[in-house]
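During the reporting period the student researcher (J.K.) took over the structure-prediction task from the postdoctoral fellow and processed the backlog of single-chain submissions. One of the processed entries is reproduced below for the supervisory committee.
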Amino acid sequence: MKIQNVSACSGWYFCGKGARGEDIVFKVAAWGLRESGEVVGLIAAMNAVTGNNVPRLAEPPAGIKGTYLPEEKLTHGQKVKAALR
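J.K. obtained the following structure tokens:
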């Protein structure tokens, strides 16, 4: 569904688990408001570019189930993963 509006944010992360149980952590750069009224976090994902190879924000990968957490709620392991990106 199309994003209608974007608002910058700081201090939020999308956190999930990989196939082997490893932490997957993406920093949320902005909140996107869909036409349906649903709010989603937008991340700077690898290979998320426009046709002119300009980086763009994207939703977290569809295959990863996760949740949005403020920085103060991250575990030590999640903070380590976040620092690597």
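The committee noted the following: The longest strand covers residues 23-34.
J.K. will present the remaining backlog at the next meeting.
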